[in-house]
Amino acid sequence: MAPAAGPFLAGQTLNDMTDASRPVTAQSAVPQPGPPPIGPLPGLLAQPLSAFERYLAAERGLSAHTVRAYCADAASLLAHACGRGLPDLAELNLDLIRSWLSGQHSAGHSRATIARRAAAARAFTAFACSRGWLAADPGPMLGTLKVRRRLPQVLGRDEMLAVLTAAGGPAGWPGGESPAASAQPAASAQPPVAAALAGREMTAAALQLRDSALMELLYASGIRVSELCGLNVGDVDADRRTARVLGKGSKERVVPVGLPALRAVRRWHDEGRGLLAGERSGAALFVGARGGRLDPRTARQVVHARLAAAAVPDTGPHGLRHTAATHLLEGGADLRSVQEILGHASLATTQIYTHVSVERLHAAYLQAHPRA
Hints:
Layout: H1 43-59, H2 64-83, H3 94-106, H4 111-130, H5 157-165, H6 179-182, H7 192-221, H8 225-229, E1 236-237, E2 242-246, E3 252-256, H9 259-276, H10 296-309, H11 316-330, H12 335-342, H13 347-350, H14 358-368
Antiparallel strand pairs: 1-2, 2-3
């Protein structure tokens, strides 16, 4: 095992860690199921599709998942158009796009999927028009399917407290000893089996500290799991109580972090990280059992396990984000501040959380209305 990094954030600021040590995007670590593969397209259509992929990734800076989904949708549209006798891209029109979306509906795809594929079609036609491959862009004339937005499930404050204290948060190491104290005797002085058991206990204790810090930080900051896994050691500033996060579209933001989360992260860094970190860890703040950067899938498994241990509704990792936003609003935070914390590009996305803060709305009514 590699030795632990230096004292937690000693002499480091938000800018001390370079972006070169980050993954290109944390979201690209999780494979996502996509639409069925499309057969080979004619060269006249395959070349614009390749150019569209480069445009999405390089010029618009979209995540690997979004690029893959949009390109798959555009390929599906072009394959449909070829089946309808499209001679070249210049003949792509609104009727072909509408017939393609109609086929998606007949195939039983959800409204959200069809809305996303319509957005991909609009992005592709706008790109093709800007390159001169289409004389006119049919995308703006394509209607937008309204998607029903379900209210997010959130946990109450008592339930969230139970989650953070469940499954032995930072309650202590097995046997009451710290990993440093357990590791002091030389390995050669212990029987092989006993040494192996001691190593497993220390690894389990380190994972427990990591999982507690992970849960505290997700709730304290409202960041996404992919953003958490992309954090480096120098991204958390204990003095300023902030964390630097690389979000969707490689957009960077700084979010506040509460003291309990900072204490949990400090303890993980000082006492647990060194037991798991290895050559593959780099500057990653959270590492896996094998020493590499923590994978988002593993982080999600940790969240589900902690929710089950606390016997609360399994809202999943994104439910912690919903819960953090709702508790911020109920505590008096304004919607614009919550938008900045969550990293939403549009305020309309954040407004969904106002629907789950009815108690705060009712309290304001009782306080302000003269006939309440």
